[in-house]
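Blackboard transcription, Thursday session:
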Amino acid sequence: MIKNRDTRLTVWLLLPVALVLVAYVLYPSLRTFIESLQKDGMISLGNYQDFFVQESKTNLEALWNSVYISLLSVLVSALIGIPLAFIFNRYDFPGRSFFSSAAILPIVLPSLVGVMAFMFLYGESGLVPNAIKDLFGLDKVPFKIGGVSGILIVHAYTMYVYFYMTVSAAINKIDPSLEEAAYNLGANKFKVFWKVTFPLLTPAIVAASLLVFMISMASFSAPFFLAGGYRVLSLQIYFSKINGDMEIAATQSVILSIVSISFLLFMRWYQNRKDYRMASKGIGAHRSEVKNPFMKWVMVVTGIIGVIILLLPHFTILLLSLVPDGTWTFQTYPTVFNVENYRLLFEDPNIFKPLRNSLLMAVIATLANLVFGVIASYVLVKRKFVGKSLVDILVMIPWALPATVIGMNLIFAFNEPSVFSFGQILVGTFWILPLAYFIRHIPLVVRSTNAVLEQLDDSIEEAARNLGAKWFYTFRRVIFPIIMPGVLSGTLLAFIESVGNSRPRSCCTRFQTGPYPLKS
Amino acid sequence: MASIKMENVQKAFGKTIAVDQLNLEIKEGEFFTFLGPSGCGKTTTLRMIAGFYYPTKGVVRFGDKDMTRVPPEKRNTGMVFQNYALFPHMTVFENVAFGLRVRKVSPADLKRRVLDALQKVRLESYSDRQVSQLSGGQQQRVALARALVIEPEILLLDEPLSNLDAKLRDEMRVEILRLQRDYKITTIYVTHDQAEALSMSDRIAVFNYGVCHQVGTPTEIYNRPANDFVASFIGEINLLTVQVEKVQQDNIEVALKGSEQPIKLNVENQAREGISILQTDVDLAVSIRPEAIRILDVTEEGMNIFKGKINSVQFFGSVVNVMVDVQDVSLRVDVFNTHDFGYFYQGKEVYVQLPEKQLRLIPVISGDAP
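(Written on the board underneath:)
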């Protein structure tokens, strides 16, 4: 009977987790799929036929554009992020720790804000091209960014950080004795890198590639604003929705999901071909100091230039925030600076309200993520039950779905009353956005919590039980405080993304009432 | 303090049976050791006593109370884990205080008892440290204090010394014994180290493949092993496969395969089950400890004297280990270093005597791994 007590606890913890996953992950996806099968009130594959054989080929073109832009974004981000991770973690030179912290700064810039900053900086009437034009007395601007290359530059700027962060963490975990063993066996530096170091980074590179691919697939603001509505699938979904072609939008969403999930499965397969776990524990990385004074200063100067380029968008946003509305129209450079905008922000309810809403929604979603993430992760890591891999897959699905698709799924699921929305229509209300953020960030919080829980030895929990503590007391006083740092890092990231994210938002609400991170 | 009784206990994980048909009685205040190689079921048994596993079959009692399915937090046992399982986010003081806080001990009482426990393990000046700032031996003592401060009925130690280096291990061995005597607490100690088991325990249970092979005092286990597994797991032993020739009133005659000279055994040294196995058809072996064999330069009158040739000589400091080939078997003989063992050299012909009182006939079961 008491044996059932532990089983009962597992069931009590598992039930809400499973319910949430079914209601807000599985059900919305199924709704979208069902919607895509409906054509003229009948069930058919007609929408898919239209997608692929449509005369204008717009959809196919958009699909192709999405895929190749995403793949190129992965490649470019990797080419920037991985070498940076190596330079900062393997070499020591003056200012290293400052530069390595500065390198993660693009991540705090929400994608829409980043796009805005790039337009003001490097666009047709951007500050940098015009400054160069005036400085050298040129007839026209020497360069401007836009089109596909513009999208790629913005993507690379905002997404190389994912490669930089995951690969850095992996490099620091590599046991130095593995490389030493390879040298000892006679391999040269080049061989050691390609045969030992680089393969060990596979899991990190796979994870980062997936993340970048997914974000690029869902990228909305860059193609919309920077490339003048360049045809990609996420934009097509948005336009179909605006035009009221909900069945087409559903079909496009399903196809976007299939591409994303295929990429996820491919990467998983690639990673699972070999075992990359290291038998020994990491002893901590060692950095070799750059001795050559010339190289040393080259690195420092490059670092400083890099930091300036990295921070320019942030400064631009700060600068823009100081330019009052309507004072910078035809002039090349802004002329008036004051804190008028900040005063308006707090005094004008029309501006203040969206900001407050943004924060409030992010707080609600993040709190829900925290509670759900910790329970789900505890059940997944520390408890045994039948169907664990199914729950695991459901948790990961929101990660494989581009944000646009999550938005569409929610629209199809909750534009009519359902059990899961307590008989309410959620679309168009306040609650749809926190829900979207919540779903979007389930994998993020669960993953980061899993990582710390897996590190936590079972004997810690057993020791507390042995000393007489009941399960809940043990959880509250022992387990939670220990895993807290890991949980917080995941939740903080979820919060930042929720505050800055405009993607699910643009699909779920009307533009005029939408709380934007920046009103310009 | 409590006695522990395990009756017909079995623990299965799926199809694997980790512990089978276990009957044990551990007395109040006893220092009892579970000894065996890894995977033998000793930790599983300990965890059934702690309540982390519930037996598939059988009953576990503390005193007269049936504890079989009582959850771990209601057993009032104090456990020291192999990796200590100290709470990394708490100070030394808070770690030790944890069990008392759960028991809602008043603050003044709590402080007194924690400091008292820390003093007993000689860590009173470390109470404000983070556990990560302590050495392995100190962490070990915090774990001990944490388990003892709640005044448990039973102290459970799961290979507590295996993560320490040799010198610290000796120190902690003494320390654990001292604390056990101080608190007069029923203690179960799990180890795979025979030296720890022999030197610390009141009684030992020897496990292999989920079966308890023998329970007894250290001298019983060492001098009168129940079978070839117990004999060879603890200490060094010479095992000679034999066949029984003659059973007489006060001695038994056995024969080595291919040898004409019989070996005579004294009946008194044989276990009762040793005699009873004569009637069954199990394989039998004669066992003798290396230190019990005498090496003779020249033959003399006496029983069980065999001619042999020295195969190798190894010097271990206090003991010299001489391998002597006698017919087809190689005997290990340990001789004390008396500073003049120089007359042992490879190839020398010698005589060995197997004293009949030191010979023991035991069943061979090692082939029967399930």
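Lecturer's comment: Chain A has 22 helices and four strands.
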